[in-house]
Amino acid sequence: MRELLRMTTFSKDRQIGRLAIMLLLSEHDQAEQQKMISDLGWLGCTGKVGSMDTNKVVAAIETAAKKNGVIKSDVYRESHALYHAIMEALSGVTRGQVQIGSVLRTVGLSFSILRGNPYESEAEGDWLAVCLYGTIGAPVKGSEHETIGLGINHI
C-alpha cells in the first residue's frame, strides 16, 4: 500500500501547473526555457495570441502545440486533452464565462504549453498544462485589465 501511495504522489520538482506559469512569466530567454523543459524530459512551447474570437485563441494554441511537437496531430486523445486544458485556462481568463467577442471583449494573451509526467511513477503517463496571461477588456485601448488562467488535463 505504501509503495502504491509513493508511486502516485507528485514530485515537487515536477509540478506541471507551477512550471507552466513560471515558463510563461519568466524573463529568461527562449533557449534557457527550452533547456529547463528538456532537462525534465518534457515538451513545451510559448506563444502569443490576441483576438475577439475564442475559436482563434483555441486555434492559435493548438497550432503552436502541433507545430512544436508538443502533441501529435494525428492522435485524437492528445488533441482532445489539449482542448480541455485550453478551455479550463480560458475559463480562468474569462472568469467562468468562456465568451469574449460575443460580449464585446477582446484578449491579448501570451501562452505556455507543457507536456510531461508530474508523478514519480512513469506509469502515470503524460499530462498537459496550458497557462494564459495577458489582458482582457472592451475593444478600446486602455479599457483592459490583467488576467491569468491555468488548465491541466491528462492525456
From TrEMBL:
Keywords of the record: Activator, Histidine metabolism, RNA-binding, Transcription, Transcription regulation
InterPro entries the UniProt entry points to: Regulatory_HutP, Regulatory_HutP_bacillales, Regulatory_HutP_sf
GO molecular function: mRNA binding
Pfam families linked: HutP
GO BP terms, alphabetized: L-histidine metabolic process; positive regulation of gene expression
CDD domains referenced in this protein's UniProt entry, alphabetically: HutP
Biological role: Antiterminator that binds to cis-acting regulatory sequences on the mRNA in the presence of histidine, thereby suppressing transcription termination and activating the hut operon for histidine utilization.
Subunit architecture: Homohexamer.
Family stated for the protein in its record: Belongs to the HutP family.
Record's protein name: Hut operon positive regulatory protein
Species of the source: Anaerobacillus alkaliphilus
Lineage: Bacteria, Bacillati, Bacillota, Bacilli, Bacillales
